[in-house]
């Protein structure tokens, strides 16, 4: 089953809500686990969603809002029974006492699991969790990619400008949004899943000001990475933070093999906790 890794979260600058998009169908990775939503596909026995949350918690961001959709009940069940999923325990059958949990994970997290619609696209999902986000800034990421992004440095960069959205730009084996910026870091072009990729692409790991919600609506077909982001680009409101370290998505069976291989060899660069 799952091994034992102690939590090493530390309080760092500017703790804030972290919104995680975890509602998509993940059709390209059904050959790994057809009965699971993609964020629940495991690396080393732990859902990739857990790895992402451990990363954010390490940097002091342990208040999560998870946007659910496809098989959201599976994610709910994991957190409702988190201790049983992640720790050894002794249960005495026929005894009314609760299980006795042993060494393992004991996270100091707050996790809001929000149903955002089975068919909703990413823009609508973000809009629908507006009531759970307070404060001026919040983190936003996807539930299917890991990286060793320095979230303190990302947040400092975001706070150094007055723009609405900061996106982390990576140089991976990309299949996502290609980014082009000017010398100041302001994004001047964003192409979602281009046919030919060159330079940096969007790796997620966004920092958002609350003004982002003004660019969103509740239309289920609203794709965050298309209309809203292009509108932000046109308004000069999207900035790019460059990340030169590790980043990799869980998008295909090949990705699944690669990430699990890195974990098994104790070479998982994203494990900063």
Describe the global form.
Answer: globular
The fraction of residues in strands falls at: 25-35%
CATH class, named Alpha Beta
Structural class: alpha/beta
Structure, briefly:
The protein is of the alpha/beta class and 273 residues long. The chain has seven helices and 16 strands.
Task: Please provide a written account of the structure.
- With 273 residues, the chain is of the alpha/beta class.
- It has one domain: Alpha-Beta Complex (Spore Coat Polysaccharide Biosynthesis Protein SpsA, Chain A).
- Helix content is 22%, strand content 25%.
- It is built from seven helices and 16 strands.
- The strands form five sheets. Strands 1, 4, 7, 8, 10, 13, 14 and 15 form an eight-stranded mixed β-sheet that branches. The chain has a two-stranded antiparallel ribbon with strand order 2-3. It has a two-stranded antiparallel ribbon with strand order 5-6.
- The two termini are 20 Å apart.
- Residues 1-11 and 174-178 have low confidence and may be disordered.
List the helices and strands and how they pair.
Layout: E1 17-22, E2 42-43, E3 46-47, H1 48-58, E4 63-68, H2 72-80, H3 82-86, E5 87-90, E6 100-104, E7 110-115, H4 122-128, E8 137-142, E9 145-147, H5 151-159, E10 165-170, E11 178-181, E12 187-191, E13 201-202, E14 206-209, H6 227-234, E15 238-242, E16 247-249, H7 253-264
Parallel strand pairs: 1-4, 1-8, 4-7, 10-15
Antiparallel strand pairs: 2-3, 5-6, 8-14, 9-16, 10-13, 10-14, 11-12
């Amino acid at each position: 089953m799952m091994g034992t890794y102690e939590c090493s979260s530390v309080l760092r600058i500017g703790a804030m809500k972290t919104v995680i998009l975890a509602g998509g169908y993940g059709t390209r990775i059904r050959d790994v686990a057809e009965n699971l939503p993609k964020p629940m596909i495991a690396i080393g026995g732990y859902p990739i969603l857990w790895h992402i949350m451990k990363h954010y918690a390490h940097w002091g961001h342990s208040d999560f809002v998870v946007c659910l959709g496809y098989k959201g009940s599976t994610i709910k069940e994991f957190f409702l029974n988190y201790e049983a999923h992640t720790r050894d325990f002794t249960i005495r059958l026929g005894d009314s006492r609760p299980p006795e949990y042993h060494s393992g994970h004991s996270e100091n997290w707050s996790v809001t699991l929000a149903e955002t619609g089975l068919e909703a696209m990413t823009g609508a999902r973000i809009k629908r969790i507006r009531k759970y986000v307070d404060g001026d800034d919040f983190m936003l990421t996807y539930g299917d990619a890991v990286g060793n992004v320095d979230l303190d440095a990302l947040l400092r960069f975001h706070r150094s400008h007055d723009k609405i959205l900061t996106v982390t730009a990576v140089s991976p084996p990309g299949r996502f949004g290609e980014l082009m910026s000017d010398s100041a870091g302001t994004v001047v072009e964003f192409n979602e899943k281009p046919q030919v990729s060159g330079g940096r692409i969007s790796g997620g790991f966004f920092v958002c000001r609350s003004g982002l919600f003004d660019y969103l609506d509740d239309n289920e077909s609203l794709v965050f990475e298309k209309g809203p982001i292009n509108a932000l680009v046109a308004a000069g409101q999207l900035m790019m933070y460059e990340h030169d370290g590790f980043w990799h998505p869980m998008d295909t069976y090949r990705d699944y093999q690669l990430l699990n291989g890195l974990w098994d060899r104790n070479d998982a660069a994203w494990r900063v906790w």
